[in-house]
Amino acid sequence: MRRYGYVGILGTSRNATRSTPEERCRQELKKIGFLFDLDGTLVDSTAAVMNSWITMANEAGIPLEALAGHHGVPAEQTLRNVIGDREEAEIQKWIRRVTDLEIADIDGVHAVPGALELLAELDDREIPWTIVTSCTTDLAIARTRAGKIPMPANSVTFDQVTSGKPFPEPFILGADRIGLPTDQCWAVEDAPGGVTSAKDAGCTVAGVLTTHTREQLPHADHHLEHLNQLLGKAGL
Asked: Which end of the chain is more exposed for a tag (fewer CB within 10 A), N or C?
């Protein structure tokens, strides 16, 4: 059984139905775990993200086109890419501003279709999983609560790593936290930066086509039109 609880919407892990001996045997042979991105993968937060970043960009005098292509990249890294020539104090100001805006704006944030059912099935079958996100801990808690998504206590957030996505560190840490090597982990991602992060970490990557097309995620090993396809793709 899983030996860690949940934070966020749930205080403790729910009682999972024990898997059958046959299922446990298959799982032992495969030894697969899952590492899920959050925004665009488990929760749909697109409107909230857009509102927050447009507000901040207008206040900071940042052209909106400069932010294109940064979906899935941590806010701090995005702003350093875009306004890295400004004074450090100003960069920190806008990092705090957009983070505060995002935490406050959870209107319309909801679970991606199939996410709740998939996570419940993983728990029922005692298959290890966790969240690997570019959100800070506070933002991840706000969005999982809004989407009623369980947030494992061993989730990986941006403030727990030195280099976030698209660097591999987040998924390396996520695999370690569920007790598996990265080559036995499936990463589920919706953004190019996340796919790069997971691939470079050594994970098998399933690209879920919620915010990007198949052509925009060419390096994913598999593509999912719906989360209910994941376990079948993984042979489970």
From this structure: N
Summarize pLDDT for 131-140 with one digit per residue, the tens: 999 999 999 9
The answer to whether residues 98 and 156 belong to one domain is: no
Per the annotation, the verdict on 39 as an active-site residue is yes
Full residue range of the structural domain in which residue 35 is found: 8-44+109-233
Alpha helices in 61-191 (DSSP H): 75-83, 88-104, 115-124, 137-147, 169-177
Q: Quick check: 37 pLDDT over 70?
A: yes
Distance of CA 205 to the CA centre of its chain: 13
Q: Which of 37, 105, 123, 190 is catalytic?
A: 37
From residue 134, give the alpha-carbon distance in Å to each of 2, 124, 184, 204.
Answer: 24, 27, 22, 19
For the question of residue 176 being annotated catalytic, the response is no
Catalytic residue among 39, 105, 123, 190: 39
User: What CATH number is given to the structural domain containing 147?
Assistant: 3.40.50.1000
The model carries a pTM of 0.80
| Angle between helix 137-147 and 88-104 (nearest 10) | 20
71 and 124 fall within a common domain: no
Structure tokens at 24: 């446990």
- Asked if residue 162 and residue 64 are part of one domain, the reply reads no
